[in-house]
């Protein structure tokens, strides 16, 4: 059987996608021109050539630099619409999207400008492209608790558009415990919780995300395999892990795809899912991520369908919507 054809036909659900990480260099230059923003790279080619990362921080430095071109409601709308069009063509039927409001509000962009542009595209994407979606507000963990609380307050008028809060940015040195109280406040608002944990950080951060932040999913979580008790807990709770294969190799979490722990995780009974993280920076969207792991591990239809099903089950869709996908 042709695995490429199967991957193309597979109904895909994306659960770990930073909308700011879908900003392709061409669009970045177009927004910079429209908004009169000066860039530190002379051309699209020079910028793309700089996407040669050695760890998470080396990526984040460029990622936050890129956000400077996003200024108007139209920018956020076009950014989101372009992502939805790309993934609709890849067979994505549902996507749960992170956004980083602090990376914009800290530059003087209003919270409402950001969320209005994103959600206008999400509504249109569902109607015109048939891609359903949910939105997850991420707190930047390198900033302090007060800043996260201020962001949660800014989100209050828009809570009907947000399904969950998440935690992203520089992991090491910023454990989940730093955000226990703001996550508790978010849960009191009726929001679900997720958190990046065990990408570069130790297994202890995954324990904290479970015990202190009461997460419904662990984002990345690939370092869980270093702790057998943690793996047992994650299996027991059927806790989804949103794995991002191309992200992990591009950020040197693993030296190459064959060294990735995905296969080990699936063999252990973990609910791993495949996701693209920051596709404009890491060399591919959902199809490219599925293709990379299929080739590295010689996955057949059984593994590919199991991965796809894990994502449907791990999504925040209701039971009826999940049943319609499978
Ligand atoms: C991120 Cl790959 C990754 N890890 C942590 N925070 C992030 N924000 C955007 N991409
Ligand atoms: Zn991420």
From TrEMBL:
Pfam families: A_deaminase (PF00962). Its EC number is 3.5.4.2. Substrate binds at residue 278. It catalyses: adenine + H2O + H(+) = hypoxanthine + NH4(+). CDD domains: ADA. One of its GO terms (cellular component) is cytosol. Residues 11-326 form the Adenosine deaminase domain. The keyword Zinc applies. The active site is at residue 199. Belongs to the metallo-dependent hydrolases superfamily. Adenosine and AMP deaminases family. Adenine deaminase type 2 subfamily. PANTHER family: ADENINE DEAMINASE. Catalyzes the hydrolytic deamination of adenine to hypoxanthine. Plays an important role in the purine salvage pathway and in nitrogen catabolism. This is Adenine deaminase. The lineage of its organism: Bacteria, Pseudomonadati, Pseudomonadota, Gammaproteobacteria, Chromatiales.
